[in-house]
Design brief:
single chain, GIY-YIG endonuclease, 16 helices, alpha/beta, Rossmann fold
């Protein structure tokens, strides 16, 4: 046999194939084509077929015996080494195969070189902003900053973005929902900012064009939901994130990526600044030591609210207190619109004792249980009312249908959904971005929000109610009314004071005693009944607690808790792959919103 020809000095590419498995995270080595770069989308031979893949490493070496990359797809790489580091972190943090995370950096279609985009430069703005914000826009500061801006959050963010863009700096703006993206883009565009807008509903061609522009042209302003946090942006200098703590900033499906955490990790690796703007910073962010500032002359993060105490009312008065009914009647007489807020879909109904009105809580885990005799979260027996011993409980709050029926009985056919011609709108959190001009807001049941089943229910309740308060103009009879049977609850006292920081710091301390985020880590694993117990026990360590299973719709929910789950997540990866290879559907929720 002749000696095989040795090919030294060739470029060898490590390619992670588009196979949703942890087993290919390390990638496979191929002889590279000319023009191959880290981040290139390629087509490679694998197990007798040709598959898509992403180049994660290039090196010189002997390519003898290596198969060759067949082709390069698209005209641009979708990540570089620094963005790849962010993607690797996310894959491990959210217990996802790297091949599932890498395409998040790319556009819907194959990336193309952007054409020149003409337009007037943005107007400079922001002279009136706090000094730390101005420093972020110029690059003199990189330390993250949170601005308590309340109803002025959009204007504060727009001024900061325009100031940075006027200085030729690239900016990424991340908002919770598509409706808010559109509204913010209009605000910036009116001032000459000309942002590139990316929405979930944007046609693939337009989204790809925006991606290509952002990836190749410095001085770009790109606006979108949290799905753009992995996108490459040429000379990215600043991320502006509005209301980072909102539930919409996190994916519900595996991998459960949170835009705030990815942006923070990216800022550390790529060394740029982040400006957070909102009313209530998350405890997760506050625990990182982020600096919090207010606008000059503002002592409150949201307007004043009116608390209505329902404890002295007759037992069966209905959903609306007398004071609330009177306020609605007055608004209708003066031709003003009313918005009645009730729980968004997904909140389990709270209940209270029919005799003494005490909120029903689980004696085992302290959360608000679903109806029944056993807590579906921890399995503890619920028993009678802890205050008076009664075994009769009545539900708190109601869905939009029941609320509309009761309002219709009280005020006639003047009620409808948000955006209708009706004088009284009834809606949920999903409707808040479309609220528009409303003079009176009514939160039917603050208690149901506060006593949610998640460990962070109180924090989330404050965020929702503060956001609602910020949307209602205050003065001349305009305000938000919040109904409760616990007027001295810390959430409602905080809502009255307008300063969220003392409450949030107490929450962080309380959770630290329980080992809950942000002091600890929590993840939930959901899998078909009877498939995960022994396997989880095999990877358990003394550093973590594994609780469960709780049965939910025929599936097991396992709760894993610990001060640091990094090592556990590494051992969990092959376990998850084993379950999936066996045909099981596995959902992993890292930093879950609901428990």
């Amino acid at each position: 046999m002749g000696r095989a020809r040795r090919r030294f000095g060739k470029l060898i590419a490590t390619v992670v194939p588009d196979v949703p498995s942890f087993s290919v995270d390390g990638g496979f080595r191929y002889e590279a084509l000319e023009g191959t770069q880290v981040g290139s989308i390629v087509r490679v031979p694998l197990a007798g077929r040709t598959v898509r893949g992403w180049v994660t490493r290039l090196e010189e070496g002997d390519s003898s015996g290596l198969k060759r990359i067949k082709s390069i797809s698209g005209e641009l790489p979708i990540f570089d080494e620094r963005l790849l580091e962010v993607l690797r972190w996310a894959a491990y943090h959210y217990v996802a195969p790297l091949s599932v995370m890498l395409p998040r950096a790319g556009p819907p279609n194959l990336p193309r070189i952007a054409k020149e985009r003409q337009g007037a430069p943005p107007h400079a703005a922001g002279d009136h902003l706090p000094a730390p914000v101005r420093e972020l826009t110029t690059g003199a500061r990189r330390r993250p900053l949170y601005v308590l801006a309340g109803k002025e959050e959009q204007q504060v963010a727009a001024d900061a973005v325009l100031a940075a863009a006027a200085a030729g700096r690239s900016v990424m703006v991340v908002l919770p929902t598509a409706a808010e993206v559109e509204g913010f883009a209009d605000r910036v565009d009116d001032l000459g900012g000309q942002p590139l807008v990316v929405l979930p509903s944007t046609p693939a061609r337009a989204a790809t064009r925006a991606w290509s522009q952002a990836a190749t042209r410095p001085g770009t302003v790109i606006v979108g939901t949290h799905r753009i946090v992995f996108w490459p942006v040429k000379q990215l200098e600043l991320i502006v994130m509005i209301e980072e703590g909102r539930r919409a900033m996190k994916d519900r499906q595996t991998p459960t990526v949170h835009g705030r955490d990815v942006a923070r990790r990216r800022a550390i690796i790529e060394k740029f600044g982040i400006l957070y703007v909102g009313s209530v910073p998350s405890t997760a962010l506050l625990a990182t030591g982020v600096e919090v500032t207010t606008l000059s002359g503002h002592r409150r993060a949201w307007p004043p609210v009116e608390i209505v105490d329902r404890t002295e009312e007759p037992p069966n008065i209905g959903l609306l207190a007398d004071r609330t009914r009177a306020a609605i009647a007055q608004a209708l007489r003066t031709g003003r619109r009313v918005f009645v807020f009730t729980h968004r879909h997904g909140y389990a109904p709270a209940s209270r004792c029919a005799s003494c009105r005490t909120i029903r809580l689980c004696p085992g885990c302290g959360t608000r249980p679903e109806p029944g005799d056993v807590c579906t979260r921890c399995g503890a027996a619920l028993g009678p009312c802890v205050a008076c011993g009664s075994r009769q409980f009545v539900p708190l709050g109601a869905g939009t249908g029941r609320v509309q029926e009761e309002i219709r009985r009280a005020f006639g056919d003047v009620v409808g959904g948000v955006g209708s011609e009706a004088s009284i709108w009834v809606g949920t959190e999903r409707d808040l971005p479309r609220l528009g001009e409303v003079s009176l807001g009514v939160a039917i049941d603050a208690d149901g929000l506060i006593h949610g089943s998640a460990y962070n229910a109180a924090e989330e309740a404050l965020r929702v109610l503060a956001r609602l308060a910020s949307l209602i103009p205050f003065g001349d009879g305009r305000r938000l009314i919040v109904q409760t049977i616990e007027p001295r609850h810390p959430v409602l006292e905080t809502l009255t004071s307008g300063d969220p920081l003392p409450f949030l710091r107490r929450e962080i301390s309380a959770r630290a005693r329980l080992g809950l985020p942000p002091a600890g880590e929590v993840l939930v694993l959901e899998v078909a009944e009877g498939t995960a117990g022994e396997l989880l026990e095999s990877v358990a360590t003394k550093e973590v607690s594994i609780l469960g299973p709780a049965l939910h719709h025929g599936r097991e929910r396992w709760l894993v808790q610990g001060a640091d789950l990094t090592r556990f997540k590494q051992t969990l990866r092959p376990l998850v792959q084993r379950l999936r290879d066996g045909g099981a559907t596995v959902r992993i929720d890292v930093d879950p919103l609901d428990l």
